[in-house]
Write a structure and sequence with these properties.
Elements: E1 2-6, H1 12-19, E2 28-31, E3 42-48, E4 51-59, E5 62-65, E6 68-71, E7 73-80, H2 89-103, E8 109-114, H3 118-126, E9 134-147, H4 158-164, E10 185-190, E11 194-200, E12 208-212, H5 216-229, E13 244-252, H6 257-273, E14 278-284, H7 290-293, E15 298-309
Parallel strand pairs: 7-8, 13-14
Antiparallel strand pairs: 1-3, 2-12, 3-4, 4-7, 5-6, 8-15, 9-14, 9-15, 10-11, 11-13
């Protein structure tokens, strides 16, 4: 018998274990353990025969919409235990989500599906049941994993950075408040009309190398010598973390390509000084800053963005594709 409900403190240890299960890759298996202690979000869980079977996250932050603050939603963090994948857990999970939505309604949610995840697209978009929310395509999110490098190290006073965030009210779905997660380390940087924050969330979430496949199993030591000679991040040993931080709350008072270049260069130097190997930046496919960011050494991942609604069609956005705070996904 399955049980679906909101998580309690007694569930957190099992949730950490479920989030830490490896995700198979072509060359590298990774895991993404996440600690939910002190989370402000609603944590949905499903149990089967007394064991944790699935979980997801529902967040309802205040976001700017048409120049006014609105409570909207983020859906993410979906995990299903491998032994139970393929069972009818999704329908029961959506039933719990609908009950929570009816008790605490928001106009719509934002969600993403990683490019190439055909199963998720079929289940959630193409073959969704009538009682489930509808997923409306809303553009493409490009996530750049940027290699940090030695460079200029500086940050801005938080009071000055927060005053610059007033520019964000003109962007659809930009956060009204820069809320911090438990244990977060955050540094702000302003550069001639461009502002944003470097968010080190390693206290609550990590990326771990679970194992390597094929030639990488025995070529990794040789490859790492070559990487160190080039002053580039090596491949960590199995069980070791990949140190990374998130760039968030990015806004500007107009299109400023030169300022963005200097800002991002400084952020990469700041991340390197903190011991981070990678910095993750999320930009919409139509962002004029994407072409500039791709000039830096990076890995690119693409996800389809969806506006998720229980009723009606989504209204047109006044400023193009919605802004997404990458660390919330």
């Amino acid at each position: 018998m399955n049980e679906f409900r909101l998580a309690t403190g007694a569930d957190l240890t099992e949730m950490l274990a479920l989030s830490a299960l490896p995700v198979p890759g072509n060359w590298i298996d990774l895991s993404y353990p996440r600690c939910f202690e002190g989370s402000r979000d609603q944590l949905l869980i499903g149990r089967s025969q007394g064991q944790l079977a699935a979980m997801a996250v529902r967040a309802t932050p205040q976001l700017w919409r048409g120049g006014r603050p609105h409570r909207l939603g983020y859906l993410g963090g979906l995990r299903v235990a491998p032994r139970l994948q393929g069972r009818n857990l999704l329908a029961e999970g959506f039933a719990l989500l609908r009950r929570l939505h009816e008790q605490d309604p928001v106009e719509e949610y934002l969600a993403t599906i990683v490019e190439g995840n055909q199963l998720a697209h079929q289940l959630l978009v193409e073959r969704a049941r009538p009682s489930w929310p509808r997923f409306f395509p809303a553009g493409v999110l490009c996530t750049l994993a940027l290699e940090t490098r030695p460079g200029p190290i500086r940050s801005s006073p938080i009071e000055h950075a927060l005053s610059c965030l007033e520019w964000g009210r003109t962007r659809e779905f930009f956060p009204c408040e820069p809320l911090e997660e438990p244990g977060e380390r955050r540094l702000w940087l302003e550069e001639d009309g461009m502002v944003g924050a470097l968010r080190d969330l390693s206290a609550s979430r990590q990326t771990l190398v679970h194992g390597y496949h094929g030639p990488l199993r025995w070529l990794r030591p040789v490859y790492n010598v070559w990487q160190r000679l080039r002053r580039r991040p090596p491949l960590p040993a199995p069980g070791s973390p990949i140190r990374g931080g998130y760039l968030g709350y990015l806004c500007s008072d107009g299109y400023r390509p030169a300022s963005f270049w200097k800002w991002l260069q400084s952020m990469l130097g700041l991340g390197h000084s903190l011991g981070l190997q990678w910095i993750y930046l999320g930009l919409s496919e139509s962002s004029p800053y994407l072409r500039i960011a791709r000039r830096f050494r990076h890995r690119l991942y693409r996800s389809q963005v969806f506006r998720v609604r229980y009723q009606g069609q989504p209204t047109m956005l006044t400023e193009g594709e919605p802004y997404l705070e990458l660390a919330w996904l």
